[in-house]
Amino acid sequence: GQNIDQPTEMTATEGAIVQINCTYQTSGFNGLFWYQQHAGEAPTFLSYNVLDGLEEKGRFSSFLSRSKGYSYLLLKELQMKDSASYLCAVRDGGGGNKLTFGTGTQLKVEL
Amino acid sequence: DADVTQTPRNRITKTGKRIMLECSQTKGHDRMYWYRQDPGLGLRLIYYSFDVKDINKGEISDGYSVSRQAQAKFSLSLESAIPNQTALYFCATRVGPNTEAFFGQGTRLTVV
């Protein structure tokens, strides 16, 4: 089976740095995605990790440790528009290569 | 125009009615997916298709059916809607297993 855990909510201050963690236990592993979703809108792609290490893309970075079943999304220089839900999704190792999503972390950025 | 278009965007229907949600894409992707999203439960996979002749059940397919009419079109049907199918439904496409998914804007379905 698949199990993906993320904190439900986080609050951070504008201009600060926040780290959103994701742990997973899945039957096989073929990559981990992070998506951003504003309320009532479609999820949009942020990052993809398949090998251990840090992937940096502008203000957003994502880290993966396959041996620990752990990833985090790092958001720097937080802006009010970063207030959204952040979804961790794991691609399994089965023939379908399906994506299983976590329940998401609701981030609130305050002044 | 959006790359992945869902219709309708909002729908209220009565228990027992049949309803179809439609998805069309202009990205030329073979892989298409239907998810539902409920508060506290995240996105859950209903059905997916890798080409016109390929249909696969996801984790919560009971009460749903799909049709892949063409590479660009993937529709989801609720044969007899029930209130616990009230949710936000998303269609998504991908070009391959290692690539990002592109989501439609969602259909908010309410079954009363």
Structure write-up:
The complex is a heterodimer of chains A (111) and B (112). With 111 residues, chain A is mainly β. Helix content of chain A is 0%, strand content 56%. Chain A is built from no helices and 11 strands. Chain A has strands spanning 3-5, 9-13, 18-25, 32-37, 44-49, 53-57, 60-65, 70-75, 84-91, 99-101, 105-110. In chain A, strands 2, 4, 5, 9, 10 and 11 form a 6-stranded mixed beta sheet that branches. Chain B has strands at 4-7, 10-13, 19-25, 31-38, 42-51, 54-57, 65-70, 73-78, 87-94, 102-103, 107-111. Chain B has no helices and 11 strands. Chain B has 112 residues and is mainly β. Chain A binds chain B through residues 30-31, 33, 40-45, 48, 50, 87, 89, 91, 96-104, and chain B through 4, 33, 35, 40-45, 48, 56, 58, 88, 90, 97-98, 100-106.
Observed structural traits:
heterodimer, A: 111 residues, mainly beta, five-stranded antiparallel β-sheet, 56% strand, B: seven-stranded mixed β-sheet, four-stranded antiparallel β-sheet, globular
Quick overview of this protein structure:
The complex is a heterodimer of chains A (111) and B (112). Chain A is built from no helices and 11 strands. Chain A is mainly β.
**How many beta-strand runs of chain B?**
11
Number of strands of chain A: 11
What's the average pLDDT of chain B? 94
Helix content of chain A: under 10%
Structure class of chain B: mainly beta
Please compute the radius of gyration of chain A using only Cα atoms: 14 Å
Poorly predicted runs of 5 or more residues of chain A: none
* Mean pLDDT level of chain A: 93
Instruction: List low-pLDDT spans of chain B.
Output: none
**Main sheet properties of chain B:** 7 strands, mixed
One letter per element, helices H and strands E, the order of chain B comes to: EEEEEEEEEEE
Class computed from helices, strands and strand pairing of chain A: mainly beta
Which radius of gyration of chain B do the C-alpha atoms yield? Answer: 13 Å
> What is the molecular shape of chain A?
globular
Shape of chain B: globular
CA-CA gap between termini of chain B: 32 Å
What's the multimeric state? heterodimer
**End-to-end span of chain A in angstroms?**
41 Å
Total helices of chain A: the number is: 0
Task: Please describe the biggest sheet of chain A, giving its number of strands, its sense, and whether it closes into a barrel.
Answer: 6 strands, mixed
Order of helices and strands of chain A: EEEEEEEEEEE
